[in-house]
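REQUEST
  id: r-88c1
  op: predict_structure
  target: Olfactory receptor
  payload:
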Amino acid sequence: MDELKHCHTTHYSILAWRILMDRGAWQAMVHRVAECPIYIEPQNLRNVSEFFLMGLSDDPELQPFLFGLFLSMYLVTVLGNLLIILAVSSDPHLHTPMYFFLSNLSLADIGFISTTVPKMIVNIQSHSRVISYAGCLTQMSIFILFGGMDCMLLSVMAYDRFVAICHPLHYQVIMNPCTCSKLISVSFFVSLLNSQVQNLIVLQLTCFKDVKISNFFCDPSQLLNFTCSDMLKNNIVMYFVGAIFGFIPFSGTFFSYCKILSSILRVHSSGGKYKAFSTCGSHLAVVCLFYGTGLGVCLSSAISQSPRKDAVASVVYTVVTPMLNPFIYSLRNQDIKRAMWRFLRKII
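RESPONSE
  id: r-88c1
  status: 200
  body:
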């Protein structure tokens, strides 16, 4: 920058004197200024009005297939989770803490998938990939909010199963309605805090290198890669915040299942072990699916150098996981299955 200033100052001083002596020096001035490199200020991220979501494929022939596929998956996810919510609320036998948390998990899954897929479907249908700056930050915040809610609720549900199996005589006292409501409130506010902290980190970006997001939604990690400033500092803060808000619920889930496994192993009869394990089998399957797909996406993004492959991998935990949760609970849980059939018979 100092060299640029020196270059311009030197040429301007000499040419200003020559202009006084010779009017033809105007041509020389233009030539000299053209020789000096031009410094271009980096564009401020706050002045950007829109980003471009590149999606999963640029092939026009694939767009109708992707439109039908994601529309079907979205409808199945919303209807499946909504059916669980309605079945639980309509059956008095399911008004227990476990199914109360399950209803909230289904609601969070609906919000999670509704944050990304409808925008993708609209973009395919309208042949547009534009998302406004405010829309991108809003989508990112809500995406992190519902993703955090999923993570927190899975931990709360693991704690519920721990109390039911390890302290069955005190279950009704510990998991009373007031405690359940507090656990849901804490899950929501912790997830909200996580989303706002990460949103604030992105808002601190002062310049950008690109506006093309190689995904079908506003991925916060990709927005960080656009910055021209110190990426190391931003990445450290982002991963530190993610590690805190991710490690706490994961450690809670892990601790709960360690205690559950220890308690089940102390049961002598095989029938007792099966009965104890069957009460948390569906939840354990959902936990493995949630963390397994998330870990798989992280590993694939670390190994793969293709942003488009990372976008395809992100479909697994943003779309497939919320879609499979209702099937896991309905197929493995007889109470949910009976409640669904009773509810369907009422409305048909």
